[in-house]
Amino acid sequence: MPKKLVIKVTAGADAPERCSQAFTVAAVAVASGVEVSLWLTGESAWFALPGRAAEFELPHAAPLPDLIDSILAGGGITLCTQCAARRGITEADVLEGVRIAGAQVFVQEAMADGAQALVY
């Protein structure tokens, strides 16, 4: 099993199943003891804001706020710098525990020894 799982989610409410899969895999990995770094890009960037995950609905899926809480409790969530800027999101706006970082940091995490990267 990889030492670290780096997950980039590009989908939000525009592709709910793909979005939910990314958050579910991240939460399950955290619960399994895997070090997880979840990256919010594209339309998933909105879920870095308080209250936005509560608006997300997908039948038979775990509630997105619960998944985010699980990921933050044992892993990390990063909002893409450019995605945040395009949406007018600043560090003052995001959920506690969410950081904003760019492609250089993503590449560094994805290329680290023992890391496995997934993109949804």
Q: What radius of gyration results from the CA coordinates?
A: 13 Å
Strand order of the largest sheet: 4-3-2-1-5
- Report the average pLDDT across residues: 97
Instruction: Give the number of helices.
Output: 4
Low-confidence stretches: none
Shape designation: globular
Structural class: alpha/beta
Q: Please state roughly what percent of the residues sit in beta strands, choosing from under 5%, 5-15%, 15-25%, 25-35%, 35-45% or over 45%.
A: 15-25%
**Order of secondary-structure elements:** EHEHEHEHE
Tally of extended strands?
5
Distance between the termini: 20 Å
Helix percentage:
25-40%
- Biggest sheet descriptor: 5 strands, parallel
Please supply descriptive tags for the structure shown above.
120 residues, alpha/beta, five-stranded parallel beta sheet, 4 helices, 5 strands, globular
Provide structural commentary.
This protein is globular. 37% of the residues are buried. Strand 2 (35-40), helix 2 (64-74) and strand 3 form a beta-alpha-beta unit. The mean pLDDT is 97. It is built from four helices and five strands; from the N terminus they run E-H-E-H-E-H-E-H-E. Strands 4-3-2-1-5 form a five-stranded parallel β-sheet, sandwiched between helices. Helix 1 (16-31) runs parallel beside helix 2. It has helices at residues 16-31, 64-74, 81-86, 103-111; strands at 4-9, 35-40, 76-80, 98-101, 115-119. By secondary structure, the protein is of the alpha/beta class. The chain starts with a strand and ends with a strand.
